[in-house]
């Protein structure tokens, strides 16, 4: 087995960021090579439980024939709990590449169960690994063979949605968003389950829906309190913005003409820009108020958290953000209309000062746009890595084979 020498320096002509990208790509490639090697050499599959029916289990090995005797099976089943096999460990920790490699070499491993009687779908659902879940479900015949399986506690796939593993990243989300993710996972699993699976009782004599409702009842209360408090705070801000925007419509820049009552600066292009920005700010603020009031008066049922409440909160935040942005643009146009001196550098400085808060606000207050930008950036980064790999390879690296000799690649 070859081991890379960390002291080898990349002396290619590429820039430092491109070198880092290429180094990262090489790490991923060699990690996958190591995975493929370990999967082929793995001997932990000699004893692999595979549930053929809902009540009987059998042990098989990945080869054509099995050398495991009945006595070994009994000893294996009665032994103390052993560590999970690589397939279930990869599923638990969210490593779809490893899962795919194992299932490619050993397709029958898809029916492997752990000592709790849980197959790969049970583990993927419990740990919220959507990518692995989708990969297994889309595998030929896998959905039909695994969807009706139950574990040692008679838990179906739907029951596993209620047994969520505590996620460190869940602290970064609001409880409403965590509950929304759980609801969507429940609906996703429900689509592949039969009507009988939805009615099955586990060892606690509860259906999957009862388990889910009881397991998430406390979270629903937290989500209700969280959304109500935030909606009230956002409503106050939206009303204040609407008040300022409404007052600005009657105190136009430059004031009215004492004879005609028309605005003095209405012929200037920026005045029209001010009018549009102020009107949009007022309209968006009032729209967000309506959205937040709908949230406050909601019944907060489980099905409300799946779609409607999340959509209303996002729509209200978007409208509130637009309202603040338009109000800042209206302020900038007012400042330019009333203070502009006609001098080039003075006007440029004034423009920069006026629109600087707008730019800061845009870059710090549009989380959805940031997410989209990150997605585009990730795609561009992946494309760039592929392009870099096609360029001139770096200086040949020295590798240590572990036998006292070196090789050059």
From TrEMBL:
Coiled-coil regions, chain positions: none
Pfam family, one: Ank_2
Lineage, broadest ranks: Eukaryota, Viridiplantae, Streptophyta, Embryophyta, Tracheophyta
Annotated InterPro entries: Ankyrin_rpt, Ankyrin_rpt-contain_sf, PGG_dom
Keywords, in A-Z order: Membrane, Transmembrane, Transmembrane helix
Transmembrane stretches, start-end: 234-252, 272-296, 317-336, 348-368
Protein name, as recorded: PGG domain-containing protein
Superkingdom, natural source: Eukaryota
Gene Ontology CC: one annotated term: membrane
Residues covered by the PGG domain: 224-336
Organism, scientific name: Lactuca sativa (Garden lettuce)
Cited Gene3D superfamilies: Ankyrin repeat-containing domain (1.25.40.20)
